[in-house]
Design a protein that fits this description.
The structure is a homodimer of 634-residue chains. In chain A, 30% of the residues lie in helices and 24% in strands. Chain A has 18 helices and 27 strands. A 6-stranded mixed sheet of chain A has the order 12-11-10-13-15-14, with helices on both faces. In chain A, a hairpin with a 2-residue loop joins strand 22 and strand 23. Chain A is globular. About 3% of the residues of chain A have low confidence.
Chain lengths: 634, 634
């Protein structure tokens, strides 16, 4: 039997695959990433494609909407290639990179602040132009000794390390440059590691990459280490998404599938390498000039990036293999930068409070402030740090992906076409929405969902327990496939032609998400025996954070009832903290300290969190005294 | 044209080679090492073979003795394969390993002293059996942190380093061993480098290799790092010999031939690997258990071992690429031991005073002694160190290979059949010789040559300038191909059937060799403004040193005229010093200090050495007041 060919339209890309390969895998081999959150299990219903011609075998129908089935669509993950196939990929099924980038760009642009004033400009990698003393019969120290002597005149450092390959080049480099040499040195821990040697006083170029590896997206900043200027920014979806939507499903894939760890490791390396090549093309720089890569990610992402098993993160008592991983060389990971470049990862605090939070905490500067600060990063997980320069306590609660659009019928990420604001007339129950980019609505993003919940409650569409009031008089309240639902936008006004609805189960998911975060905050406060009024500052991170309406978030009981002036947003604090540490050895050292000095509160130990969680499953809360301004409005 | 086959007899080994390959190279490919000192240049006349059948093309006759040519022999390096060839290799042309080993074994056996009492037993590599605390919900530090904590309880160390591959195995190793783990740790510079992780409390095994890389021979000791016991010793010829006899011809090969550096690097690695495999087979140990390799070699050998160019060692102002080379991993060099094992080289003092001398100086303990000590290693070069605990000054003089048998018509190394003692009747000029192993004489080794020179002068066969007295009445004095010569043994009594003679040019070479060494000693003394009587102790190293007759050496003016009681022998101090440092971190550190603290005297700078050298070209010296006991005998 000949190897079947799969041709994808409208891309017009063909790949040859073994019989029995799923169309999802075939698409990935063709460089086309499909939406898929369930790890190819047939349950998320997103990887919809249409087979135009050829033979496939369906393992199962999978969880697919009736309408989609009627439209001739099937799930790519459930369709196995049996012979040559022609496949059409609908626009909706694609992980459309350009949309993501646009979204990221808008977010990043708003927060393009300069390097934090608290740390000196003292990059992790320096380039020094040395003139090495010329040897004589009496001054006959070795080439390496003379290089070290010259380097120590320029640099305050402990031991100087040089690798065998660079050492092998030293004699000729020195002589070709007539005893002038440009040395690139990494300083991660007081030692000086030579990462590059160039003859003469070469035109200097030394770049670094700040990398945020999120479960869903990966963002890179290309930073000029000589000037501190950010030369470019890129973000895209983490290619690991096809193996599962959240860290737990990734860990399961890594540990239970043969080659699973390697799949995930390679997927994130490929993601970073793709961004690198795009950034380099755009900025016209060469990978050879990148000497330092600083990575911030949650604990599982950091493990997968380094190829370390995350297995025991998931199993009680939730033990990561490393918290402070040793720096490695780019060649060990196959990153498309200078092979001798250092790749360092931010330390994590615990299995569910990772380097991204350490990086964010660094950026907030809260560990140097007198003010009691609450730092929250709301993503798939809700991670939070409370404290000041004297103490820091951190926790994580699994809020679920609701605020990123996961588990919500019409949930989507904050990109063009996403509903972000909602008005509901309490008399007529008529709904007015506004979308990102003022486009036809495609779905609802996190900030829209928060707004929605607040407004539905205000208008009396749901009660304090989140229950849909099925007796209200509007065609928007109706019975759907999954019980009662409320129509936000009718199909004639939406991009996809379908009615955009919020179901009872969507609302339950949202309540659980907001309840988990608020319960986490309560547990942190109880751990340090403070009332919420003691919080002097709240800093919210995450792409989502920029669009959130604080008043709405307080109204639904997601965030504590504090004056709006105490709140501020910080954007993608993970990548920005990484940039900060790239540019300041002192900041890098502070990050190492933060990894050690935060007290981790394991919320799954004991009943406290569960009690708080149950109390928080109301709008805004069972205990209204915690939300005085909300209670006052009633 | 088909690839020609070369069949070697009596080995009965065949290899296929490209047309134009020399028989010397073909033999090497067949695993047969021929004697060859000139780098295949056709000038040393040693790689004699006989073509029994087939087509070869002779580039040139090369420098070949008339008798050899008459016997149908030709130089393998000058004979290029043109078709299938059958070649016979005479016994004399082989680098016969067994003979060498026997010789080495005898030497080693005499000096099998235990670890120097001055240093504590504190090996460079330790194996510790740890019980790592089992993680709990509250004691939830990472696997690596818990390993580090347990390790620090056992070990006094600074930073702990672990490589990415070992880190990747850590989670499973800990759990497979039920939180018991055996960790092998190298401690070279205060840090702890983890080189191996094994689950459970494995039966411990940790081995080290002490390696002496000489220009001519390579010697290995296999050392048990847990007990300090030496498990085995092996020595063989340095396979680099085919690229040249001395460091200068090796440097020329490395720098002027395409791929020359790689040739020499690979040749010495192959030599070490061959010894390793022989040692392992003999001792029934596995390469996996070798975690530390400590190498002592002269500066050029150290460079070639690490694959570093020795080019500038040869060119004024004689600059090595490194003096203290950083430790590397075995995998980087392709050594057949545990790939994560450390390979460290003794530092050198200068281009011609290398790690072998530092190792020897360590072994002599002179840097901790009050007594002014002179340490001399007589090999192809004469290297010497003078000093005590307050100061050390080192120098090297190119004595040439005469005392190793090089450049002497019947010179050979100290192995069975070598003449080592000579008696000459002053009346009849009859000669009585004794050989190593009491075999038929094959040639003269270094100690024999010294004895010979002394006795020839005593008997009046040569004058104080070394000139042969051609008018003496004996058939032993005759005119040969190269002018006058003196017959030591007639052919009817020798192994090869040829007369063993000493020519006028042999004697000149010997005078130059002894003169260079004595001049070096004089220069050292002048540099510190001491008279030779100030020397309280003379320690002589080198395989050669064990057989030398001190009285003879003083009589010819090779060594200073000091009481015999001040002299002692130390054997192969290079490999023994390496063993000492393997077993004691303090000794290893002391070696690092020695590399820095010795003052190097460059003898080629200024006229002093040349003046001393010219004065020393007499028997014993122009200035007889320097040799009072010799003068007194006259």
């Amino acid at each position: 039997m000949k190897t079947p060919t799969v041709l994808f339209f409208p891309d017009n890309v063909a790949v040859q695959v073994e019989p029995g390969t799923s169309l999802l895998t075939a698409a990935s081999m063709a460089g086309i990433e499909l939406k898929s959150n369930c790890g190819g299990g047939g349950t998320c219903g997103r990887c919809l494609v249409r087979v135009k011609d050829g033979r496939i075998r369906n393992i199962s129908a999978g969880k697919i909407a009736a309408k989609a089935r009627q439209a001739g669509l099937l799930l790519a993950c459930q369709a196995l290639v049996e012979g040559n196939v022609v496949v059409e990929i609908p626009r909706d099924s694609r992980l459309d990179e350009h949309v993501v980038l646009l979204g990221e760009k808008e977010i990043l642009a708003e927060q393009d602040e300069e390097l934090s004033g608290d740390y000196p400009f003292h990059p992790l990698c320096r380039q020094v132009q040395l003139t090495v003393s010329e040897p004589t019969l009496t001054g006959n120290a070795s080439d390496l000794s003379r290089l070290e002597t010259a380097l120590r005149r320029e640099l305050d450092c402990g031991k100087i390390h040089i690798s065998l390959p660079l050492l092998r080049s030293l004699a000729e480099v020195l002589r070709r440059g007539d005893w002038k040499v440009t040395v690139t040195v990494a300083q991660l821990d007081g030692c000086a590691d030579i990462v590059r040697l160039e003859p003469g006083h070469a035109s200097q170029k030394s770049l670094g990459l700040a990398v945020d590896i999120g479960t869903t997206t990966v963002v890179l900043y290309l930073v000029d280490l000589l000037t501190g200027i950010t030369l470019g920014k890129k973000g895209t979806y983490n290619k690991q998404a096809r193996y599962g939507d959240d860290v737990i499903s990734r860990i399961i894939h890594a540990t239970e599938r043969k080659g699973g760890l390697q799949d995930l490791h390679q997927a994130v390396i490929n993601t970073v390498n793709q961004l690198i090549s795009e950034l380099f093309a755009q900025s016209q720089v060469s990978g050879e000039d990148v000497h330092m890569v600083l990575v911030a990610g949650n604990t599982t992402m950091t493990h997968l990036f380094l190829g370390l098993t995350p297995k025991y993160i998931r199993l009680e008592p939730y033990i990561p293999l490393v918290s402070a991983a040793p720096p490695v060389r780019a060649a060990e990971l196959g990153l498309s930068v200078n092979p001798t470049a250092f790749v360092a990862c931010f330390p994590s605090v615990a299995s569910y409070v990772g380097g991204d939070i350490v990086s964010g905490t660094l950026l907030t500067n809260m560990a140097k402030s007198e003010k009691v600060t609450l730092f929250i990063d709301i993503g798939t997980n809700g991670e939070m740090v409370l404290g000041n320069r004297d103490w820091l306590v951190a926790a994580a609660c699994s809020a679920g992906p609701a605020f990123e659009g996961g588990g919500i019928t019409f949930g989507m990420r904050a990109m063009k076409g996403a509903i972000e604001r909602v008005q509901i007339d309490p008399e007529t129950f008529e709904v007015t929405v506004s979308t990102i980019g003022n486009m036809k609505p495609m779905g609802i993003c996190g900030s829209g969902l928060i707004d929605c919940l607040a407004k539905l409650h205000e208008a009396g569409v749901i009660d304090r327990a989140g229950k849909l009031q099925t007796d209200i008089d509007t065609p928007r309240m109706r019975k759907g496939d999954d019980g009662f639902e409320f129509v936000l936008v009718f199909g004639d006004l939406t991009e996809c032609g379908k009615d955009i609805v919020l179901t009872g189960s969507d609302i339950k998911n949202l309540l659980r998400a907001k309840g988990a975060i608020y319960a986490g905050i309560r547990c942190l406060l109880r751990a340090v025996q403070l009332e919420q009024e003691a919080i002097e500052k709240v800093i919210i991170a995450g792409g989502f954070g920029n669009f959130i309406n604080i008043r709405d978030a307080v109204n639904i009981g997601l965030l504590p009832d504090l004056p709006a002036g105490k709140y501020s947003f910080i954007g993608n604090s993970s990548v920005k903290g990484a940039r900060l540490a790239l540019l300041s050895q002192e900041a890098y050292r502070e990050a190492q300290n933060l990894g050690n000095s935060m007290t981790y509160l394991e919320l799954s130990a004991g009943n406290e969190f569960m009690d708080e969680f149950v109390s928080a499953l109301f709008l805004p809360h069972t205990d209204l005294s915690l939300f005085p301004t909300v209670a006052a409005k009633k």
